[in-house]
Amino acid sequence: MVAATGGRPPGPTDETRERVLQAAFHLLVSEGSGELTAVRLHRETGVARTTIYRHWPTPAHLVADILAGAIARHELGDLVGDLADDLPVAVATLTFRFEHRPVADLFRATLHHRDDDTPTLGQRYIGGLVAPVEDVLAAAIERGEIESAPGVEARAQAQALTSELCGPLLLDHLLLGRPVDHEAVAARTDAFLARHRVATGGG
Questions:
Q1: Regarding the domain delimited by 14-69, which CATH topology (the fold level of the hierarchy) does it fall under?
Q2: Which pTM value belongs to this model?
C-alpha cells in the first residue's frame, strides 16, 4: 500500500523535533558540535537517521535551530513606551536568563563551533539575548528620550549603548561566572539612565 503524502507537513512532528533538538542541545554543550550527526542523534533519540538528515543535513542546521529557539523564547513583557520603565524590564529579561537558562554553556558551545556558513554563532546568540535591550533603546532614541548622536543612525547608536549597559553583565556572567547581583544591576541601570536619558517634564 502506498502511503498518502497529500497534506503531510514538510517537517517532523513537534514531538520529534523537540526530542531531536533537546538531544542536540545536550550534545552541543557537553561534547561539541562535531557530535551532531544523524547517527549519534538516532542513537540518542530513536528518531530515524533519514528523518534527521533530511531536516538537519549538517551540524550547522541543528545549531541554527537551537539558537533560533533559545532566542525566540527571550521575550519582553508589557512595555509602556517610557525608557525609565521599559529599560529595567528589558534588563530583567537578560538577568532572568542568566539565572534560569544555560546561557553560559550555550555561549561557550557556539563560540567554539566552526562552520564556514556560520562563523559567528556566539555573536549571533549574544546579539539575540541583548536584542530586547537594544530595541528599547532604539525606540527611546526615536522618541527623543535619548539625545540622537549626530550622523549616527538610531539602531547603530542603540547598539553602542547596549554594549555600554550590558557589556559588564555579560562579562560577569559569561567570563567570570559570577551570580547575578540584582542590586548592582539596578544601580548600573539607574546610572545609565542618569547619563543618557533626556530630562522631561516628568523628571
A1: Arc Repressor Mutant, subunit A (1.10.10)
A2: 0.73
CATH architecture of 75-196: Orthogonal Bundle (1.10)
* pLDDT digits 0-9 by tens, 23-79: 998 888 888 778 889 999 999 999 999 999 999 998 888 888 887 777 765 556 677
CA pair distance 26, 192, nearest whole angstrom: 37
Identity of the residue numbered 116 = D
pLDDT tens digits along 77-114: 677 899 999 999 999 989 988 888 778 787 777 766 55
